[in-house]
Design brief:
The protein is α/β, with parallel strands linked by helices. It contains 14 helices and 13 strands.
């Protein structure tokens, strides 16, 4: 059977979407699929070298600038370039990801691709407010008319998308994100990493990671820390990441006089060495699909406290595989963090979390499901 040509198009090569694309490019069976990756390097130019290295494993790479924000002239240029590439490639499957590449790619590719697949990760109309919410919904409703399959990464999306986009249920397919256990093996002893981070044996290290942007709700985490620290002397908060709100968040932590009890640790590429050195993970996001950081933390045996977002409920059953704050607010988040003082509860949550991820959220299962979907559409 000849290999299927799969063209993947994405704009935000950052965070969880970056991890997702790397998994597909590295893990999809190259004897069955010929992969072309169209990706924008604009949001994270420092990762261009990583993208270029994908050529060494047989990926055909097309770097194509796409802007995140609506920009008529730039979007028109990107559309024309996408159309030119897709006309030349004539893919069996065009698989677009997220909003910008999802709209432009499906518009450009509907004439040239045999089948169109789209993974929103989370649609903009799920979190946007005001007139833009209606605009994004209208665009996605129109694009859905031409899309053969929409991939949901969380179970709530399989119920929401058919209703919001007026689709038959069969056109929305659930393929959850998954982690690769081998890639999360730490190369350093826990004690060594803790010493490097300035942690004492008695410190209870609570970490969080991600881009310092409004979505991630790190202002909520800083304010929750203000409530936790006076009650729990051994608690230490460590935030890994950089972003546009870094100065603002540091200013907030300084104004609240958190001192070195709340540390901004910068960007770390190898989180696999950091998770084993931590004692818990906190997700304070305002919206998410099915975040890799939570999957990774759970796999590494950390008890997780999270805001009770719809996708998170696929992973965290309150008081069984983690703790859920009842609202996206620092007070309920702080209450749940303080429950981690119970070492027996922490141990129970960590064991159940690891088992939950192993039972249904591995990259192997994700790639197998994706491969089967491609073959069903391309045959």
């Amino acid at each position: 059977m000849p290999r299927l040509k799969v063209v993947i198009a994405i704009e935000p090569y950052i965070g969880g979407t970056r991890e997702h694309i790397l998994q597909i490019c590295r893990g999809l069976d190259k004897t069955k699929f010929d992969i072309v990756l169209i990706v924008s390097p604009l949001r994270e130019p420092s990762l261009e070298g990583e993208l270029l290295a994908l050529r060494d494993i047989g990926i055909t790479l097309r770097l194509l600038p796409m802007r995140r924000a609506i920009s008529p002239l730039a979007d028109l240029k990107a559309f024309i370039a996408l159309r030119r590439i897709l006309k030349a490639e004539r893919p069996d499957i065009l698989h677009t990801h997220s909003s910008k590449a999802g709209i432009l790619g499906r518009l450009a590719g509907r004439t040239f691709a045999r089948s169109l697949v789209h993974t929103p990760h989370i649609f903009a109309f799920e979190w946007e407010r005001g007139p833009r919410k209606l605009l994004y919904w209208a665009l996605e409703w129109l694009m859905a008319r031409w899309t053969d399959r929409i991939i949901a990464i969380a179970s709530y999306q399989t119920r929401l998308y058919p209703r919001k986009l007026s689709l038959d249920q069969s056109r929305v397919v659930l393929i959850p994100n998954g982690v690769d256990p081998e890639s999360l093996q730490s190369s350093k002893p826990r004690e060594e990493t803790r010493r490097e981070l300035g942690l004492s044996p008695d410190d209870f290290a609570i970490c969080s990671a991600g881009r310092l942007c409004p979505q991630k709700g790190f202002d909520i985490l800083v304010r929750a820390a203000e409530l936790v620290i006076p009650v729990w002397p051994n608690a230490r908060f460590l935030l890994f990441g950089t972003g546009e709100l870094e100065a603002e968040l540091k200013g907030l932590a300084a104004a609240l006089r958190l001192g070195d009890r709340f540390r901004f640790c910068g960007q770390r590429e190898n989180m696999s060495d950091l998770y084993p050195a931590m004692d818990a993970y906190v997700l304070s996001s305002r919206w998410e699909g099915l975040p890799y950081v939570v999957l990774e933390a759970m796999h590494c045996g950390l008890p997780v406290v999270s805001t009770a977002l719809p996708g998170i409920r696929d992973l965290i059953e309150h008081e069984r595989t983690g703790l859920l704050a009842e609202d996206v607010h620092w007070e309920p988040l702080a209450r749940e963090i303080l429950r981690l003082r119970d070492s027996t509860l922490c141990r129970h949550l960590a064991e159940a979390a690891r088992a939950k991820v192993a039972a249904g959220f591995t990259s192997k299962e994700c790639l197998q499901s994706l491969g089967r979907l491609y073959q069903s559409l391309g045959s």
